[in-house]
Amino acid sequence: MPGRILTASFALLALLAMPAAGQDLLVASRGNDRILMFDADGNLAGVFAAGASVPSPSCLAVGPDGSVYAGVREPSGWRGVVRWDPGGSLAGRFAAQGLGDLTGVAVDAGGAVYAGGTSGNEVVRWNPDRTLYGTFAYGNGLAMPAGLASGSGGKLFVASPGSGQVLVWNPDGTFDRVFRSFGASAQPVDVGLAGDGRVYVLLRLTGGQTGVGVYTSGGSFVRFHSGGSVMPSPTGLALRPGDDAVFVSDSSTGLLRLGEDGTFRVVVPAGASGLLQASAVRFRPAAQVSENSLLVQGKLTAPDGAPVPDASYQLRFGFYTQAAGG
Fold this sequence. Notes:
With 326 residues, this protein is mainly β. The protein has strands spanning 9-16, 23-29, 34-38, 44-50, 59-62, 68-73, 79-84, 90-94, 102-107, 113-117, 122-126, 132-138, 148-150, 156-160, 165-169, 175-181, 186-193, 199-205, 210-215, 221-226, 234-239, 246-250, 254-258, 264-269, 278-285, 295-301. Strands 4-3-2-25 form a 4-stranded antiparallel β-sheet, with no helix packed on it. Strands 5-6-7-8 form a 4-stranded antiparallel β-sheet, with no helix packed on it.
């Protein structure tokens, strides 16, 4: 029988090829400088980024190639967008003068990056080659931009809580339209664009209520899902590609999911799995592997079944040519 390990026993739980349609649910944990990965059931899948590379992450975006972008604020006061390539390696930083704390970031199909923040009533853009385009969206009621979403045809949807509106700009920077105006009744926090053309808006309503409104592509009201007591401080909205399941990050309660009964439930409580002050949530395609690769999930234990101390352990696996008798 081939040797299994060199230094400890290994209890194998699963040996699986990652499905091509898999999704990682990324959640920014602003309270401890992390971006965490979860599955739809709230199980921690790993830490995507942590520490000095992602100081105080406030918003997230995923590019068409699977690259991840986060708005950050360094202790020195520098504010900007950090990018990781699809493999998780740090791949660059985007900066512009006068940026306040970033409240929204988006990437369009061509790779251009957009960011809005607290310092002014504008959204800035960086070109696909990472050069600064400058101010992209301003005026037309835009006030304190928050969540951003890039839609079909390159149109940019912007949540404007200062004016109680969701606004839309064309890819050339010209103003397109007011998608929806809530007036003084609600402040839009984030925007999600569904595969069927509907638009989901994360809202803070007057009186302290919160929830997610659903609208047609033309801005007509479809329905509203109340956040209830589990959504006191919503910060971000994400729709899962494929079925448009709704997830919300909340800085007080953690990660929420909208159930089939129309009720939001906590799937990752604040403080669990290292999640502190959840500030944003986004989906990205799960890491892909080649056809002759295997991903291993398991736990490493001592001979008595107790967890081993944190350290580096060398493992050796044996492969068999037949199911039995080999």
